[in-house]
Write a structure and sequence with these properties.
The chain is an alpha/beta fold and 360 residues long. It folds into 2 domains: 173 residues, Rossmann fold, CATH 3.40.50; 159 residues, Rossmann fold, CATH 3.40.50.2000. 45% of the residues lie in helices and 15% in strands. The chain contains 15 helices and 12 strands. A 6-stranded parallel sheet has the order 2-1-3-4-5-6. A 6-stranded parallel sheet has the order 9-8-7-10-11-12, with helices on both faces. Helix 4 packs parallel to helix 6 and helix 11 crosses helix 14. It is globular and about 65 Å long.
């Protein structure tokens, strides 16, 4: 007899972005806890477009939710006596509302990767398009349903919890910080990259906050520091001409493995000024035993470990000072104390312990 249903976007065997990584982690933990008692529904995003898709989107049918899927899900819930549902993403608020209305006794746990309304408002400010406005509106409506109809609201940090209260009138019932599956290779398979020099590392895909942050960093910080900066992440290849500076900045773009780049970096930079949730790159840096120099936004959710993990900077002058000090102070390529922080707080084991407690 199935006990729990997991609703999630598509799970990739080799996830890349922060949301994909955490989605797979949640999936793997729930499957380990419940085994065959966990029924999984993976949704791929809608391929339809036009007025009909807009109409359905405003009703909550987004990111793969369809009326056909809803019919199938209701049958599975009823036939298998599902009593718990884990919804991986507040974008599925339309599903949450329909299920709660039909099966009021089922306990629904919704995991908020971030506050979608905040995230898409930031995107709208950057792009200022009608499409961005419509995406913000449909995600706001879906997220509002997720907040109102979920039994457990699981947020990634206190900031998101309070933002939900401001927007929708409810705080989170549980906090479940960013965690990552361990990707640190054993020393004998830790392949070397060809860079044999000290460098600062920026890691991230080209979503709007990463893009704005690294452009700001290259313009306002790079001219005043001596260490070279390497930019690694999917999509940055197309910005080589705008970002590369001879002897100062090298754009690598997408790589097969981040491990050798983290290994050889002197420290990690995180000049992020907007967004929601928690930044994957901070937990990732800790996993690889690296210090982080970043903004308050980058360290949101990591406030308790900032003093050990690195340095918070607000202005370009603070970045310059922190980087010049770190360039001289960082002696070990692998800080075991930082690695220990990852293992105790942001690892698979830590996440499993927290999720088991929430689900019980």
């Amino acid at each position: 007899m199935n006990d729990i249903l997991l609703l999630t976007n598509k799970i990739y065997k080799l996830p890349t972005g922060g949301r994909e990584l955490l989605r797979k982690l949640n999936h793997d933990i729930l499957k380990e806890i419940y085994g065959d008692q966990c029924t999984v529904f993976e949704l791929s995003k809608n391929s339809t477009s036009g007025m009909k898709s807009i109409f359905y989107a405003f009703k909550g049918y987004i990111d793969g939710l369809t009326s056909e899927f809803m019919f199938e899900a209701m049958q599975v819930i009823e036939e298998n006596n599902i009593n718990k549902i884990f919804v991986d993403g507040s974008n599925f608020g339309g599903f949450v509302k329909i299920v709660k209305k039909r099966f009021p006794k089922i306990k629904i746990y919704t995991f908020f990767h971030n506050v979608e309304a905040k995230f898409f408002l930031g995107l709208l400010k950057q792009t200022k398009t009608l499409h961005a406005l419509s995406v913000l509106m449909v995600n706001y409506l879906a997220e509002r349903k997720a907040v109102w109809y979920s039994d457990n609201i699981i947020c990634i940090n206190e900031r998101d919890s309070h933002l939900l209260q401001q927007l929708y009138g409810k705080l989170a019932t549980n906090l479940y910080p960013m965690s990552l599956e361990d990707k640190l290779p054993s020393s004998n398979v830790f392949s070397a990259n060809q860079v044999k020099e000290k460098f600062a590392l920026f890691v991230g895909s080209t979503f709007y906050a990463n893009q704005a942050g690294i452009f700001w960093f290259v313009e306002h910080v790079v001219p005043y520091i001596s260490i070279k900066t390497y930019i690694v992440g999917r999509g940055f290849e197309k910005f080589k001409n705008e970002l590369e500076l001879s002897g100062k900045v090298v754009v690598i773009g997408e790589v097969e493995s981040l491990a050798p780049w983290y290994r050889d970096a002197c420290f990690v930079i995180a000049p992020i000024f907007d967004g929601s949730g928690m930044k994957t790159k901070v937990a990732e840096a800790l996993m690889y035993g690296k210090k982080i120099i970043g903004t308050p936004e980058a360290f949101s959710g990591y406030e308790d470990i900032v003093e050990q993990a690195g340095c918070v900077c607000i202005s370009s002058d603070e970045f310059v000072k922190a980087i010049e000090l770190s360039d001289k102070k960082v002696k070990s390529p692998f800080d075991t104390e930082l690695r220990k922080i990852y293992e105790e707080n942001y690892s698979y084991k830590a996440a499993k312990s927290r999720l088991e407690s929430i689900m019980s």
